[in-house]
């Protein structure tokens, strides 16, 4: 059993991770020496464990900023949806004019504008919970 | 109210719950980031960005891990990106932004802090992250491997190398 194996064993033992190292006979002088060093290192390293009061984070400001970013993303998404819907409707109109002729299309449009409100208004009111 | 309940409220858009969760985890994330960067100014930016990303992605958080663990993972990725963008591999001088009144004890304490931080900063960022998570936060190898997305064997060898390096440096500087 060499020093490297002992070092690895003692380090794993120090950090409660013994299952990852080979079981060795660890009660000899070399192992004790490594344990002592680790204890000293542990004490020295505790100097880094302190509060940093000079780092001030305004959490509410970060939350507000996140809200702004979310809102911007939502608006962008809505814009893309609107543009896509407009393109689809305009393409459909063009296709309908080519297919059925402009006269039929105008009649279809008049029917749409006359009857659509009867459909859209109740749906909107129901969504708002007014009916 | 426990963490899971707060997280569920925060997912529904409750700002007060979000504020409480972030406040509860601020100490952990602050300690981790300052030890990783060794620079209070950079730490402030990284902590703010970490919080921002945590708020924006709260819906993706699954409560099988602790919220602090998830935030540490975010902070690690942000710091990694920072190092990549700025092509910084080592920090030569550690900054301390504290306003000490220079009594003898405080001078010694500041000197020790700087010396030890310099040793920690000499480790590569991967080894440093493993060392900090294990030594200061007591995470298991398995958890660290999940946080840093690397195999358990790599975590173990990084920790061993880091500890051996720190012992060697402390001995060289006659601090132990």
UniProtKB/TrEMBL annotation, chain B:
InterPro entries in the cross-refs: RNA_pol_sigma-70-like (IPR039425), RNA_pol_sigma-70_dom (IPR014284), RNA_pol_sigma70_r2 (IPR007627), RNA_pol_sigma70_r4_t2 (IPR013249), RNA_pol_sigma_r2 (IPR013325), RNA_pol_sigma_r3/r4-like (IPR013324), WH-like_DNA-bd_sf (IPR036388)
Limits of the RNA polymerase sigma-70 region domain: 24-87
Entry's Gene Ontology BP terms: DNA-templated transcription initiation
GO molecular function (one): DNA binding
Highest taxon above the source species: Bacteria
Keywords assigned by UniProt, alphabetized: Sigma factor, Transcription, Transcription regulation
Lineage: Bacteria, Bacillati, Bacillota, Clostridia, Eubacteriales
Domain RNA polymerase sigma factor 70 region 4 type, first and last residues per copy: 115-165
Species per Swiss-Prot/TrEMBL record: Fervidicella metallireducens AeB
Protein name: RNA polymerase sigma factor SigY
Endoplasmic reticulum in keyword set: no
SUPFAM superfamilies per record: Sigma2 domain of RNA polymerase sigma factors, Sigma3 and sigma4 domains of RNA polymerase sigma factors
Annotated family: Belongs to the sigma-70 factor family. ECF subfamily.
């Amino acid at each position: 059993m060499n020093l490297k194996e002992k070092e690895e064993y003692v380090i794993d033992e120090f950090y409660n991770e013994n299952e990852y190292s080979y079981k060795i006979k660890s009660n000899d002088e070399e192992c004790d020496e490594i344990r002592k060093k680790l204890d000293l290192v542990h004490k020295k390293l505790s100097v880094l464990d302190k509060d940093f009061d000079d780092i001030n984070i305004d959490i509410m400001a970060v939350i507000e900023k996140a809200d702004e970013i979310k809102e911007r993303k939502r608006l962008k998404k809505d814009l893309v949806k609107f543009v896509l819907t407009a393109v689809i409707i305009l393409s459909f109109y063009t296709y309908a004019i080519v297919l059925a002729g402009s006269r039929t299309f105008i009649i279809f449009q008049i029917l749409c504008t006359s009857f659509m409100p009867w459909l859209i208004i109740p749906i909107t009111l129901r969504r708002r919970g007014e009916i | 109210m426990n963490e899971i309940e707060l997280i569920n409220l925060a997912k529904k858009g409750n700002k007060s719950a979000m504020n409480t969760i972030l406040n509860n985890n601020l100490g952990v994330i602050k300690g981790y980031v300052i030890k990783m960067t060794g620079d209070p100014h950079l730490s402030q930016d990284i902590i703010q960005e970490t919080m921002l990303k945590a708020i924006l992605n709260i819906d993706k958080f699954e409560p099988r891990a602790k919220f602090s663990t998830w935030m540490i993972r975010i902070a690690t990725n942000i710091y990694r990106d920072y190092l990549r963008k700025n092509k910084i591999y080592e920090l030569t001088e550690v900054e301390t932004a504290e306003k000490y009144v220079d009594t003898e004890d405080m001078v010694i304490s500041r000197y020790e802090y700087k010396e030890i931080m310099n040793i920690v900063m000499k480790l590569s960022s991967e080894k440093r992250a493993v060392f900090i998570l294990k030594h200061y936060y007591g995470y298991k190898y398995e958890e660290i491997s999940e946080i840093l997305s690397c195999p358990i064997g790599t975590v173990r060898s990084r920790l061993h190398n880091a500890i051996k390096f720190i012992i060697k440096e402390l001995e060289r500087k006659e601090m132990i």
